[in-house]
Automatic annotation (TrEMBL):
Organism: Paramoeba aestuarina
GO biological process: cell redox homeostasis; cellular response to oxidative stress; hydrogen peroxide catabolic process
Occurrences of domain Thioredoxin (ranges): 45-206
Family under the similarity heading: Belongs to the peroxiredoxin family. Prx5 subfamily.
Keywords, ordered alphabetically: Antioxidant, Membrane, Oxidoreductase, Peroxidase, Redox-active center, Transmembrane, Transmembrane helix
MF terms in GO: thioredoxin peroxidase activity
Name of the protein in question: Thioredoxin domain-containing protein
Protein purpose: Thiol-specific peroxidase that catalyzes the reduction of hydrogen peroxide and organic hydroperoxides to water and alcohols, respectively. Plays a role in cell protection against oxidative stress by detoxifying peroxides.
């Protein structure tokens, strides 16, 4: 009987001691609040930075056509904006249409190209461009795997909406270098509009 009791005591203290050690070691982890759904943020690009090197592939006519950031931005004055998704309400009703409607105003500021990017495939972007009558006024480029968006540090996880998407933003690029950069707060549409872009160009022209 005593032998059995001693074995029980040794086993009890061994297990209790192991459990206690586990709690002590784990305490800092549990004390800190963890968000296991949080995606890792990359460093956002900033004014003065060069646009990251990238090759987009878009539908030009019926052909999948590659185009590099060097072709798009070198020795050019470009307005680049991004949005969460083609055919979505704010993007279709306000964001893209504003730049299409104000195309002539941008030409007055000698803007060479207006580019819109979104995490959609080439077919979706072509259909959206046709529906919005973008023509040659705004170049819609697909970032299907969000690789360019991630290089810019602008990815966001929209979960059920559509996975990784691009934050709504506006930038001005002069010879491949950012001269203006603004990111919208969630569910806002204020600093990335065509009006905001033209206002910046107007201020810049007065300097």
């Amino acid at each position: 009987f005593f032998l059995v009791f001693e074995i029980f005591l040794v086993s009890f203290f061994f297990l209790f001691g192991f459990f206690g050690l586990f709690l002590v070691c784990s305490f800092p982890f549990f004390k800190k609040k963890h968000n296991f759904n949080m995606t890792t943020e990359t460093s956002k690009i900033k004014v003065g930075d060069k646009i990251p090197e990238h090759t987009f592939t878009y539908l030009k006519g019926d052909d999948m056509t590659p185009i590099t950031t060097a072709e798009l931005f070198d020795n050019k004055k470009v307005v680049l904006f991004g949005l969460p998704g083609a055919f979505t309400p704010t993007c279709s009703a306000h964001h893209l249409p504003g730049f299409i409607q104000d195309f002539e105003k941008f030409q007055e500021f000698k803007v060479d190209t207006i580019i819109c990017i979104s995490v959609n495939d080439a077919f979706v972007m072509k259909s959206w461009a046709a529906q919005q009558k973008a023509g040659d006024k705004v170049l819609l480029l697909p970032d299907g795997d969000a690789s360019f968006t991630k290089k810019m540090g602008l990815e966001m996880d929209t979960a059920g909406f559509g996975g990784v998407r691009c934050q709504r933003f506006l930038s001005h690029v002069d010879n491949g270098k950012l001269t203006h950069f603004a990111i919208e707060e969630p569910k806002k549409f204020e600093v990335s509009s065509s009006e905001s872009s033209l206002a910046f160009l107007g201020k810049d022209a007065k300097l």
